[in-house]
Amino acid sequence: MARSRLTPERESELYAAVLDLLGEVGYEALTMDAVAARTRSSKATLYRQWGSKAELVVKALRHNKPVQLAEIDTGSLRGDFHAVLQRTDDCQMEKNSALMRGLGQAVHNNPDLFQALRELLIEPELTGLGLMLQRAVDRGEVRPDNPALSYLPHMMIGAFAARELVEDRPVDQAFLIDYAEAVVFPALGV
Predict the structure, then answer these.
(1) 84 and 125 Cβ atoms separated by less than 8 Å
(2) Distance CA 95, CA 149 (A)
């Protein structure tokens, strides 16, 4: 039988099922058998399309997060930041936080997952963030020698991680906007 491509609808359905399972059981307990059963597909098909559990999980995460930071250009860093936040609702943000917490533990024990996450999710995000910041520098909003520029990813990841730990509350748009206004923009001199 010839290898058939999945329709975009079927691929989206599979990715949604993977993310649901990931949220329910975590990365370690997620199996290709469980994905196959949940999606009424064969394990052979899953391996043929994705090759590994790590690749399937990361592609599902990327598929679910199509915001391209590099494409957002409102003319100001503050505007860009708000535009990014408005593309994800609080419910999705909470889901994303839960998934990242679940994966945070798994990446330590799984180099394939770490590599796939870096290549497919983290590096494109950092590249997009870098372009957004470079436009702010080019417009004169941020000094090119501002030492906080290289720490922006750390600040944002820190905000996500710390909200749960410090306040036992999920990250939402209101929190991230307040955080940006109180911490990020002042650090960048915006």
Answers:
(1) no
(2) 28
